Automatic annotation (TrEMBL):
Stretch list, region Disordered: 1-24
Pfam families linked to this entry: FecR, FecR_C
GO MF term set: sigma factor antagonist activity
InterPro entries listed in its UniProt record: FecR (IPR006860), FecR_C (IPR032508), Ferrdict_sens_TM (IPR012373)
Organism: Duncaniella freteri
Domain Protein FecR C-terminal: 297-365
Domain called FecR protein: residue spans: 159-252
PANTHER family per UniProt: PERIPLASMIC SIGNAL SENSOR AND SIGMA FACTOR ACTIVATOR FECR-RELATED, PROTEIN FECR
Superkingdom to which the source organism belongs: Bacteria
Record protein name field: DUF4974 domain-containing protein
Secretion signal span: none
Amino acid sequence: MKEGSEHDMDTRDDDNLHHDDGLNDDERLMRHMVGMSHRRKTSRVDPDDAWESFRHDVIAPERERKHRFGVLHMTLATLCGAVAMLVVVLALGLLPGKSDVTGHTVMGDYIALSHKESPRHVSLETEGREDVLDATEPISFVPEPEVVATAYRTDKYRKISTPRGMGVKIILPDSSEVWLNADSYIEFPERFRKGVRMVAVSGEVFFKITPDASSPFIVKSPQIDVRVLGTEFNFNNYSPDNTQVALVSGKVDILSPEGSGLATLSPGEAAVCDADGTVEVEKVDTYALTQWVEGFFYFDDIPLIDVLRELGRWYNMGVVFHNREVMNKKVHFSAMRTEPVELAIESLNRLNIAEIKVVGHDIIVD
């Protein structure tokens, strides 16, 4: 799905919320929330705009002042250069703890992932209120049987978010089991409406859906929707450029956000949707894709850059390639997610692909 201007997206979301024919209130609300989350995820500072603003507001006036006050020429030039560098750093998102921008170069280095500030807890948001959850055990949202069903609203949504370095298992109101990987979220109602079970997600999420032929389970995201009755599958849209749905068991339909069918998956297949909405179906090793649920990193014939991005996301570290020639080298690598990052890097170095080290909040590849 191609991105338009922010104004266009706002207009499109409002139209979706108020004017989508054939959608019930839950669907309109969920589509609106998905659009809002997508804008927050994809919003980026434009370095060209930042530089032009700085040039107009700072450099041009500074040149005029230096012309009038030549005696301060060296001092002002030094100050101007320092501020210009700061603006460029901010525009590129390079200050530690402030950005999740990926995939850009700085002075010959390739920034594959940036360190960012991240809370150290799993959070629950409900109608503007935020609570901290204990993620050491599965968290159940199945309604208490002694509570009258009408006490749970279908229009009251909960949002569970995980920071970098933490995952959580939750049990939805219909008893479906959901595992959230690091830096992910899921939104769902207190009680599912009869005839449809709908959630919105981002990041990486593994689903084990409770069968219910009368109420299809719908997973909504900015690029695609997934419709199932009862199955196990992995959802991943960490990359802003593509979304992957890998089926472990059962059967799922891949839909466009407008509801048209794009593909149907059988076990061992994955649908990959790129930025322009094109969907391709491919055979995959679902064992490798779902080992994170069991507490392991597992990569089989995967580019080093993707391996280190996953490690960086889990340990909340930046990933910087000084040696860009090894970025796409394929590796086979496994490790426990509970072990320190230094041990994981030590194991990677035994592959003799590159010299990898931990420096501060960054994983450096020489």
